[in-house]
């Protein structure tokens, strides 16, 4: 019996040592940049749960590194064009013969500086939300006063566009359970997107029933092609020329919309609108 116990003990120690070496080797590989490294341990291993935690960490690290590379590439792309224009306009200002030429080029430089300022603001916002998922506490939200502030901002944006764009709000719910600040940011982003692409009309609908809550933002613009309806929610993705021709954003707003929707336990989607353009929906 003592021999059997000793044999079982040595076997258990050997298995433990083997699994520890596997985890150690995987950690070394991960530190060397091999982000696809994973540890596969037997379900009976005393380190099985540790291996699962390691794999979860490695997967998250791979996602973060991919996001970092994407962010770096996108930022360099977004910065290149306004900086090139600023350099070009600066040379024109230095060579300007008349005050009117100088004033014209200074105005264009100011526009590019505003563009860079908006880009920096969106990047900071995205970075803050990317760092960690906040603790989202859903609370009872009275729809009318909450939506009134968003409507005021929307009508200001419509006024700045300077045409006859119609903005309609349909409220089919008295209360929602949501985080007011984040949800307002998401709806504001959808509204800004719709104002950018709509031809004549935008409709915002808020509804809630026992199955959940939904906010729809419809427009009569060019819509989103079926093949791009997931891509539009990817950071820094911007569509083809047909929808992008009037775009002044950086492809961050819709990514934030989906992130906020998922913090609420829901999602953001896009489909066809009865108005003829796109229908963006936040559901939770």
CATH secondary-structure class of the largest domain: Alpha Beta
Q: Largest sheet, described in full?
A: 5 strands, mixed
Provide the CATH architecture of the largest domain: 2-Layer Sandwich
Low-confidence segments, given as residue ranges, are 241-246
Our count of helices gives 7
In what range is the share of β-strand residues? 15-25%
Largest beta sheet: strand ordering: 2-4-5-7-6
Please state the average pLDDT score.
Answer: 86
Kindly report the name of the CATH homologous superfamily of the largest domain.
Histidine kinase-like ATPase, C-terminal domain
- The count of β-strands is 7
Query: How large, in whole angstroms, is the Cα Rg?
Result: 26 Å
Helix content: 55-70%
Using the coordinates shown, work out and report the CATH topology of the largest domain: Heat Shock Protein 90
Q: Could you walk me through the main structural features you see in this protein, from its secondary elements to its overall organization?
A:
The structure is a single chain. This protein is an alpha+beta fold and 284 residues long. The chain has seven helices and seven strands; from the N terminus they run H-H-H-E-H-E-E-H-E-E-H-H-E-E. The chain has helices at 2-31, 48-95, 99-131, 143-161, 180-197, 241-244, 253-263; strands at 139-142, 166-172, 175-178, 201-209, 212-219, 267-272, 278-283. A five-stranded mixed sheet has the order 2-4-5-7-6, with helices on one face. The longest helix is centred in the first third of the chain and has 48 residues, at 48-95. The protein starts with a helix and ends with a strand.
């Amino acid at each position: 019996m003592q021999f059997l116990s000793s044999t079982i003990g040595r076997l258990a120690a050997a298995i433990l040592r083997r699994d520890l070496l596997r985890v150690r080797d995987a950690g070394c590989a991960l530190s060397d940049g091999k982000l696809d490294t994973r540890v596969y341990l037997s379900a009976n291993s005393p380190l099985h749960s540790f291996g699962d935690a390691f794999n979860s960490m490695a997967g998250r690290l791979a996602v973060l590194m991919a996001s970092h590379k994407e962010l770096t590439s996108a930022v360099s792309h977004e910065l290149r064009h306004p900086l090139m224009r600023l350099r070009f306009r600066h040379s024109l200002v230095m060579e300007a013969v008349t005050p009117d030429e100088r004033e014209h080029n200074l105005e264009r430089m100011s526009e590019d500086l505003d563009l860079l300022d908006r880009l920096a603001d969106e990047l900071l916002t995205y970075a803050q939300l990317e760092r960690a998922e906040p603790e989202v506490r859903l609370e009872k939200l009275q729809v009318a006063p909450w939506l009134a502030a968003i409507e005021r901002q929307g009508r200001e944006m419509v006024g700045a566009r300077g045409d006859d764009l119609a903005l309609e709000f349909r409220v089919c719910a008295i209360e929602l359970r949501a985080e007011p600040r984040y949800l307002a940011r998401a709806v504001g982003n959808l509204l800004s997107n719709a104002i950018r692409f709509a031809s004549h009309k935008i409709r915002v609908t808020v509804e809630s029933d026992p199955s959940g809550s939904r906010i729809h933002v419809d427009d009569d613009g060019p819509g989103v092609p079926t093949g791009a309806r997931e891509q539009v929610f990817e950071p820094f993705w911007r569509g083809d020329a047909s929808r992008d021709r009037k775009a002044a954003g950086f492809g961050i707003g819709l990514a934030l919309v989906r992130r906020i929707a998922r913090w609420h336990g829901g999602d953001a989607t896009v489909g066809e609108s009865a108005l003829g353009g796109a229908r963006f929906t936040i559901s939770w």
